[in-house]
Design a protein that fits this description.
The complex is a heterodimer of chains A (293) and B (388). With 293 residues, chain A is mostly helical. Chain A is 72% helix and 2% strand. Chain A has a two-stranded antiparallel ribbon. The longest helix of chain A is centred in the first third of the chain and has 32 residues. Chain B has 388 residues and is an alpha+beta fold. Chain B folds into two domains: 244 residues, Rossmann fold (3-Layer(aba) Sandwich); 125 residues, Nucleic acid-binding proteins (OB fold (Dihydrolipoamide Acetyltransferase, E2P), Beta Barrel), CATH 2.40.50. The longest helix of chain B has 18 residues. Classes of the chains: A mainly alpha (293), B alpha+beta (388). Chain B: Pfam families: ABC_tran, TOBE_2. Chain B: InterPro entries: AAA+_ATPase, ABC_transporter-like_ATP-bd, ABC_transporter-like_CS, ABC_transpr_MalK-like, ABC_transpr_MalK/UgpC-like, Mo/tungstate-bd_C_term_dom, NA-bd_OB-fold, P-loop_NTPase. Chain B: This is Carbohydrate ABC transporter ATP-binding protein, CUT1 family.
């Protein structure tokens, strides 16, 4: 069976693909190309002259300790966000998978946070945890914790991780629930008869059978933590205090738009782009091979 | 071993079960006392079942889909709660006991193998969970694999196996445990016809060898007849009849059993028409509302045996299957449906089974007769068998 469509006109297929192609070219390839070109350029402080400097922007970046700190910080954030949101979502999904009354209702409720835009998430968490406005902040101080994420970098980082992970739980939950429901009930029953207690059943049967879902979500969450946390960071901490919550993507913004160093900012974008291409490449490779069990 | 595609190697005379593979097993009767299952919505799936399966016996639960046989089996396994009565395994009431602690093993319809584990690990899983030593696990699994001819496949994953091989892994997972009771939930229904027969024989041989009490659920009456020491015929959450398969075949207690056990089904007809009523004699005949005659008990003849029943038929269809021929005939008289049971014939239609391939022509008028001893009489509602 040939799945190819046969067109009368030679031009029609190109015409049909053109809008999509135009969008990709205009909004992805064009800016990407701009970023690459920009990354080879150096502008003076007043924007009066521009010179071609080859890899100078990149070399400068790698000579800058702050950039390595930002890389480490981003990796740490991604890891913390992915692990905490994945594990909490899995816990919720396992509980929601039980046949209980009203399950449709709380499943829906658990999915809702996904509809909230990242900056709004930031604002919500600020209302709860702002040192002078936040209600939770009040309780924290009441039990003797010196809570002030505006001054304490570690607390600010915790806050970002918390908000970003919370936002992603719904998405993960949805996939985990679907994954759990695709495990045949009889396999778990067989394990129960085979003498595996619930915890052991989970770790030896359910968890391995979920591994394709977990892997997929891990990549998605890391990409999310790399890029989509921008809105949360911008509304909550603006990269501060100091640079304690400045991730790679926020550094692109602050160095380029706030610092005016467009060349360095562009070089950073290009590096980020390469990272995402690598991550997505890994994911495609594995998903295509269906690395199940 | 070359056993990948030929189910017949299972019956290879050089590979029967070794004498070593006959573990000493604890006594295990399974007794169901007035077992009930009512779901939350009020639906009664099991309406008081009493069955006693002796140690080492092979009990088959048979019935149409939805009759509650699988539910009952899952209750014995501990996968469904018991809402009334008692389930007793080896002298211990297990209603509140976890499946793991009932010392049972179950073979599922879809095999329920662990897809991420090798064949070896599938079989070893239950033993590892019980903290058995690796050396002992290895020897048990190797032995079971040898018996089931799975040795070359021990390192494969279930998805690399054929249906029949998966089925054998499921069997292996059950036997390595050396449980008190085997439970089988329609284990052969996903296999093709040929393999199903081969596995049926294997299961019976294996069960005889191991002498482990077994409960087997099926909707296939042929499987039920050939496997069972005790046959339990179920319908609508109730037991219709319990007993030796042949005894049930010879003396079905209800019209449901009469039409469910035996293929093609027993011919059931109302005794109301004068044509039949006039031929029935003897004490019980007066109370009988339904007359049953098995297709093979008819003979095409012009004579009427003493006390027997003869019917004139018009031949509607002929089915030749080689060793025997089925003649579908219609009676001249219109009559009402007698009982709504599965496999029942349209009213007025009679199946006659005759040996060989000689058969009357379609459209021919024939006369069939059955002996007095071959008549089955039932009350008008079909719920009671009347002895002549």
């Amino acid at each position: 069976m040939q799945k190819q469509a046969i067109f009368q006109s030679r031009l029609l297929p190109y015409a049909l693909v053109a809008p999509q192609l135009a969008i990709v070219l205009l909004f992805f390839y064009w800016p990407a190309l701009q970023a690459v070109i920009q990354s080879f350029l150096l502008q003076d402080a007043f924007g009066l002259s521009t010179s071609f400097v080859w890899f100078e922007n990149y070399l400068d970046l790698f000579r800058e300790p702050a950039y390595f700190e930002a890389i480490l910080r981003t990796f740490f954030f991604s890891f913390a966000i992915a692990v905490s949101s994945l594990s909490f979502a899995l816990l919720l999904a396992v509980m929601a998978d039980k046949p209980l009354r009203g399950s449709m209702l709380y499943r829906t409720l658990l999915i809702w946070p996904y509809a909230v835009a990242p900056p709004v998430v930031g604002v919500l968490w600020i209302f709860m945890l702002h040192p002078s406005l936040g209600i939770i902040a009040r309780y924290l101080r009441a039990i003797g914790i010196d809570w002030n994420p505006l001054l304490d970098g570690d607390q600010a980082a915790t806050l970002i991780i918390l908000a970003a992970a919370w936002k992603q739980i719904s998405y993960n939950f949805l996939f985990f629930l679907a994954g759990l429901q695709s495990i045949p009930r009889s396999v778990l029953e067989a394990a129960a008869i085979d003498g595996a207690r619930p915890m052991r059943r989970f770790w030896t049967v359910t968890f391995p059978l979920l591994s394709p879902t977990i892997f997929f979500l891990l990549v998605v969450n890391i990409v999310y933590a790399f890029f989509d946390t921008f809105g949360i960071i911008d509304t909550m901490t603006r990269g501060g205090p100091g640079k304690s919550t400045e991730t790679l993507v926020y550094k692109v913004y602050s160095d380029g738009l706030l610092g005016g160093n467009l060349g360095s900012s562009a070089a950073q974008s290009v590096i980020l782009m390469v990272m995402v291409i690598v991550l997505t490449g890994i994911q495609f490779r594995f998903v295509e091979r269906k690395v199940t069990y | 071993m070359g056993s990948l595609h030929t189910p017949c190697v299972l019956t290879n005379p050089h590979s029967p079960f070794p004498t070593r593979y006959s573990p000493v097993h604890p006594m295990a009767n399974v007794t169901l006392r007035n077992v009930r299952k009512t779901y939350l919505g009020g639906f009664e799936a099991i309406k008081g079942v009493n069955v006693d399966v002796g140690d080492g016996q092979f009990c088959v639960l048979v019935g149409p889909s939805g009759c509650g046989k699988s539910t009952l089996l899952r209750m014995v396994a501990g996968l469904e709660t018991v809402t009334g009565g008692e389930i007793d395994i080896g002298g211990r009431v297990v209603n509140q006991v976890e499946p793991a602690d009932r010392d049972i093993a179950m073979v599922f319809q879809n095999y329920a193998l662990y897809p991420h584990m090798s064949v070896f690990n599938n079989m070893a899983y239950g033993l590892r969970n019980r903290g058995m030593k690796e050396t002992e696990i290895k020897s048990r699994v190797d032995e079971a694999a040898r018996v089931l001819e799975l040795t070359p496949m021990l390192e494969r994953k279930p998805r690399q196996l054929s249906g029949g091989q998966r089925q054998r892994v499921a069997m292996g997972r059950a036997i390595v445990r050396q449980p008190k009771v085997f439970l089988f939930d329609e284990p052969l229904s996903n296999l093709d016809a040929k393999l199903r027969i081969a596995m049926r024989v294997e299961i019976r041989k294996l069960q005889r060898r191991l002498n482990t009490t077994s409960i087997y659920v099926t909707h296939d009456q042929l499987e039920a007849m050939t496997l069972a020491d005790i046959l339990v015929v179920m319908n609508g959450g109730q037991v219709e009849q319990v007993g030796n398969p042949l005894a049930i075949y010879e003396k079905p207690a209800t019209t449901f059993v009469a039409s469910f056990i035996g293929a093609p089904p027993m011919n059931l007809m109302s005794t109301r028409p004068e044509e039949i009523r006039s031929q029935l004699t003897g004490g019980a005949a007066a109370d009988a509302g339904i007359l049953g005659i098995r297709p093979e008990d008819f003979v095409i003849t012009d004579q009427t045996p003493a006390g027997g029943v003869a019917l004139p038929l018009t031949v509607e269809a002929i089915e030749r299957v080689g060793a025997e021929t089925f003649v579908y005939g219609s009676r001249e008289q219109e009559e009402q449906r007698v009982a709504a049971t599965p496999g029942e014939l349209p009213p007025g239609e009679i199946i006659v089974r005759i040996p060989g391939t000689e058969a009357p022509a379609i459209g021919a008028k024939i006369r069939v007769a059955a002996l007095r001893a071959k008549l089955h009489l039932f009350s008008g509602d079909g719920r009671t068998r009347l002895e002549a």
